[in-house]
Write a structure and sequence with these properties.
Layout: H1 9-14, H2 30-37, H3 39-49, E1 53-56, H4 63-76, E2 80-83
Parallel strand pairs: 1-2
């Protein structure tokens, strides 16, 4: 059964992805985290617009940075920051 906004599970299971492990970039320092995710720009946007809820989704290969990004946004804004647990595949 196919639902709107839902992937065919057989298709997802059989999908092949061509990721070069050497190309995957994750932040190793606070400066890299800021540069890669534009943390201050996001904080400014959230605060300027009075956002109270923010949802973030990361591709699987950047999940290791997700907690640090959420912590930064939560500590410097009044917004509730949610990390979506949906799996994503490949680069988008």
């Amino acid at each position: 059964m196919s639902l709107a906004l839902s992937s065919n599970d057989a298709e997802v299971i059989s999908r092949v992805h061509d990721l070069d492990i050497d190309e995957l970039k994750c932040a190793s320092s606070a400066e890299e985290l800021e540069e890669l995710y534009e943390i201050q720009k996001s904080i400014d946007y959230i605060n300027k617009n009075g956002s109270t809820k923010v949802a973030l989704q990361f591709p699987d290969y950047l999940l290791q940075d997700s907690v640090k990004v959420v912590q930064e946004l939560t500590s410097k804004t009044d917004a509730d920051v949610f990390l979506l647990a949906d799996t994503t595949y490949g680069r988008s």
